[in-house]
Design goal:
heterodimer; A: alpha/beta; 25% helix; B: alpha+beta; 3-stranded antiparallel sheet; 48% helix
Chain lengths: 159, 398
């Protein structure tokens, strides 16, 4: 399985580099998983390329989640797990979002399934998604203050 | 839990609040239905009534402590949750698990799949007005819970799968126990099918209800029986095998109709396939052999060794006070839960507590397709659609 994943990953990296060299700013190989680090402004375009390129064909967004690297800056790391059901391949796209201006393009236009995943990140991390059709809190009540999954939010809650 | 704006423009429509205390929403799901007569114009799910902040709590626990929290997400699939979490931590640690433990894990997870599908079948039949199926389904589920109790000492929140292996050696006489169940079960599944599959009311309530094309379901990130009922044979056990699934022979049942009835048929067939896997696993599990990997400092030492070896005692103390620290890095592992792709993403910063634990819960993601599924259909069909998506609210809200 790791070999297969690796072979798949090199195709993705080559195709993306051929399409636009600056779309791949870093490639991280760890424990048989490949993470492609994408510049913040190119996330939507790169994701679109991953979806529409017939040789990549990542037709499903499995998961989107955020990691808070507080107090480092840029503090947020967004991880998107892409899945190609026809090719049986996975890849992870990662991009950084700054703490001062936590805004990023929404992937909802590409995969409608991103809707709730991004709402969850908005709800728990306070990151805004540009172009999202319905950016509201999803798990917490409307009147809740703060973003509880940020590292500077106390585990026992604010009193 | 949010206030929801609906498009009440004309005098024809009314808004009906379904849930959060509605028996057919299987927990505390609230759906705001805008109705034109009895037809659904829009449906807006409202979540969060069971949000317990499990992902946040995990960040304040050591890697081994967090296992008990995973039990409580999808409370119909605690062993599957344990498995995905442990696989992710083992991936971070680059830890190999003994084959015997892997096979036992497979057997337990497949039994869990049957029990979860039984609860689904029973409660869904109850929603559709078929009372007796629930009694039968819970009767068999009880047998599975008894097996879990013998293995783990717990019926539901087992925490049986641990990092590096299993919590306990299988109990004496486990083979007879499991064998009695797998021998009995095929006839019982026939019994459910006799009651339901050709039942005209059952077919009338489910056929042609909640259809969505495969492309829409893929775009909405749906996985599991819902996607397989639309003709896409995607199953993580086959596509990305974990825990030695590549050594097992089983089929991935699919249908093409993509309606509630197809999802029912897929789940019933999956129970039969799971029984096949359990049988194969029983043959593969050796009577003797390790159930934990040899990893001092990560896997707790045996009691005996603690009384004779100083190192073992030190490791035991360190594991349960300080914990262990995987090297910095991230891992994403996906397993096939009874509801679809259950993923676990863990980011480690090299400390004994995870920097971030995220669960990609299939219930949460699959539920997104509900508004499209029920659009234009009757309220009664909404109940059928919610039922066949098979949500567990503990996992939706985490």
């Amino acid at each position: 399985m790791p070999q297969l994943a690796h072979a798949n990953a090199s195709v993705v990296i080559d195709r993306l580099r051929a399409w636009k060299a600056e779309s791949v700013s870093q490639v991280i190989e760890y424990r048989g998983e490949t993470t492609i680090v994408v510049p913040h402004r190119l996330l939507l375009a790169t994701a679109e390329q991953c979806k529409t390129d017939p040789e990549l064909n990542f037709n499903q967004l499995s998961d989107a989640t955020c990691v808070d690297r507080f107090p480092n800056e840029p503090r947020f790391e967004l991880n998107y797990q892409l899945l190609s059901i026809p090719r049986l391949a996975r890849i992870r796209l990662r991009t950084s979002v700054s703490g001062q201006q936590p805004v990023i393009d929404s992937l909802e236009p590409l995969w409608p399934g991103a809707n709730w995943m991004e709402r969850e990140i908005f709800d728990l991390f306070g990151i805004r998604f540009e172009g999202h059709s319905d950016l509201r809190r999803i798990l917490l009540p409307d009147e809740f203050e703060g973003a509880p999954l940020r590292r500077d939010f106390p585990v026992e809650g604010k009193r | 839990m949010t206030t929801v704006e609906t498009a009440i423009g004309t005098s024809k429509t009314m808004v009906l609040n379904m849930g959060p205390q509605h028996p057919s929403t299987h927990g505390v799901l609230r759906v705001l239905l805008e109705l034109d007569g009895e037809n659904v114009v829009t449906a807006v799910p409202d979540l969060g009534y069971l949000h317990t902040g499990i992902e946040k709590s995990c960040e304040d626990k050591t890697y081994s402590q967090a296992i008990t929290l995973t039990d409580r997400m999808d409370y119909l699939n605690p062993l599957g949750n344990n498995l995905v979490y442990c696989l992710a931590v083992e991936k971070l640690l680059n830890l190999e698990v003994p084959k015997r433990a892997q096979y036992i894990r497979v057997m337990m997870v497949e039994l869990q799949r049957i029990s979860s599908h039984l609860v689904w079948l029973g409660t869904h039949a109850l929603d559709m007005g078929a009372m007796s199926v629930m009694l039968y389904a819970f009767r068999e589920r009880e047998e599975i819970l008894k097996i879990f109790e013998r293995f783990a000492g717990q019926r539901m929140m087992t925490s049986y799968i641990r990092i590096g292996g299993l919590a306990l050696e299988p109990p004496a006489g486990w083979r007879e126990l499991v064998k009695r169940f797998v021998d009995m079960m095929p006839a019982r599944i026939d019994e459910y099918e006799e009651l339901l599959t050709n039942n005209r009311i059952w077919q009338g309530r489910l056929k042609g209800v909640g259809c969505l094309p495969a492309e829409t379901l893929i775009a909405m990130s749906t996985t599991g029986p819902g996607l397989r009922a639309a003709g896409v044979a995607f199953d993580n056990r086959k596509a990305f095998p974990y825990s030695s699934y590549e050594e097992f022979e089983f089929n991935v049942p699919t249908r093409t109709e993509s309606d509630c009835f197809a999802r029912y048929l897929v789940r019933v067939q999956e129970m039969r396939e799971s029984l096949k896997i359990v049988r194969q696993a029983m043959d593969k599990i050796a009577d003797q052999g390790p159930i934990k990997s040899e990893a001092p400092g990560i896997v707790p030492p045996q009691r005996e060794k603690m009384k004779t070896e100083m190192e073992a005692l030190i490791y035991h103390f360190k594991i349960f006070t300080e914990g262990f620290s995987p090297p910095p890095g991230e891992a994403y592992v996906a397993v096939e839960s009874p509801r679809g792709e259950l993923g676990c993403f863990i980011a480690s910063d090299g400390s004994p507590k995870p920097l971030r634990v995220h669960f990609r819960s299939p219930s949460f993601v699959n539920l997104q397709a509900l508004p499209q599924m029920v659009k234009g259909q009757l309220i009664a069909d909404t109940v059928a659609s919610i039922g066949t998506i098979d949500i567990v609210l503990g996992e939706v809200d985490r």
